[in-house]
């Protein structure tokens, strides 16, 4: 405990002018470093709403999945109806076995094939929708993060450039542009 209070007493007795040196007091330097890091994080982290974007996207994807599951349930219901119809057709087939067994068998296969095709199409649609929404969410998050990083970099760059350095940078870029024009001509 004495070291902590000594570090604060030490901070209060800095010389007003004179030498520059290293502070070997670990607690005091850690407090300064932590305060600088927290300040930077709070300053640059104000507008970041990536979690809100992800939550919204997650809700949309869950809604799409829910809708797809409802469509799947309807398709299963249709399959059950088709099976019931198939049973009915099979009972009629027993009655008309002599006259039209091949025709009934053909209808049965067509009904089963069309139902399975419908189920496959619905499953493919669900998977395509999920993949599309995931890609869309990822692209939006990437774009948002890129924009925020670019804004942060421009802000940092503008705050670090003084007039003289800014003019030298502009002149150097103009010189490179002029050299590129001479090469292309």
From TrEMBL:
Q: Does the keyword RNA-binding apply?
A: no
The record's listing under CDD domains reads:
ATP-synt_Fo_b
Instruction: State the annotated membrane topology for this chain.
Output: Single-pass membrane protein
Q: Which controlled-vocabulary keywords does the entry list?
A: ATP synthesis, CF(0), Chloroplast, Coiled coil, Hydrogen ion transport, Ion transport, Membrane, Plastid, Thylakoid, Transmembrane, Transmembrane helix, Transport
Q: Name one GO molecular function term.
A: proton-transporting ATP synthase activity, rotational mechanism
User: What is any Pfam family matched here?
Assistant: ATP-synt_B
Where is the chain membrane-spanning? 31-54
Subcellular location, in the record's words? Answer: Membrane; Plastid, Chloroplast thylakoid membrane
- Which residue windows are coiled coil? 65-99
Would you tell me the Gene Ontology cellular component terms?
chloroplast thylakoid membrane; proton-transporting ATP synthase complex
Please indicate which superkingdom the organism of origin belongs to. Eukaryota
Role noted for this protein:
Component of the F(0) channel, it forms part of the peripheral stalk, linking F(1) to F(0).
The family note in this entry says:
Belongs to the ATPase B chain family.
An additional note in the Swiss-Prot or TrEMBL entry is:
In plastids the F-type ATPase is also known as CF(1)CF(0).
Assembly and oligomerization: F-type ATPases have 2 components, F(1) - the catalytic core - and F(0) - the membrane proton channel. F(1) has five subunits: alpha(3), beta(3), gamma(1), delta(1), epsilon(1). F(0) has four main subunits: a(1), b(1), b'(1) and c(10-14). The alpha and beta chains form an alternating ring which encloses part of the gamma chain. F(1) is attached to F(0) by a central stalk formed by the gamma and epsilon chains, while a peripheral stalk is formed by the delta, b and b' chains.
Question: What's the protein here called?
Answer: ATP synthase subunit b, chloroplastic
- State the organism named in the record: Alternanthera philoxeroides
């Amino acid at each position: 405990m004495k070291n902590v209070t000594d570090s604060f007493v030490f901070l209060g007795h800095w010389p007003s002018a004179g030498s520059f040196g290293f502070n070997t007091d670990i607690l005091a330097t850690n407090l300064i470093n932590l305060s600088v890091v927290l300040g930077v994080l709070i300053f640059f982290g104000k507008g970041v709403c990536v979690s809100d974007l992800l939550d919204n996207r997650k809700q949309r994807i869950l809604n799409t999945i829910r809708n797809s599951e409802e469509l799947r349930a309807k398709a299963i219901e249709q399959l059950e109806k088709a099976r019931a119809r198939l049973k009915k057709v099979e009972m009629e087939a027993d009655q008309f076995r002599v006259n039209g067994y091949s025709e009934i068998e053909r209808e049965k296969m067509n009904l089963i094939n069309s139902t399975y095709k419908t189920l496959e199409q619905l499953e493919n649609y669900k998977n395509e929708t999920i993949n599309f929404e995931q890609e869309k969410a990822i692209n939006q998050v990437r774009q948002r993060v890129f924009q925020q990083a670019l804004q942060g970099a421009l802000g940092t760059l503008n705050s670090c450039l003084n007039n003289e350095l800014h003019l030298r940078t502009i002149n150097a870029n103009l010189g490179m542009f002029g050299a590129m024009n001479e090469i292309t001509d």
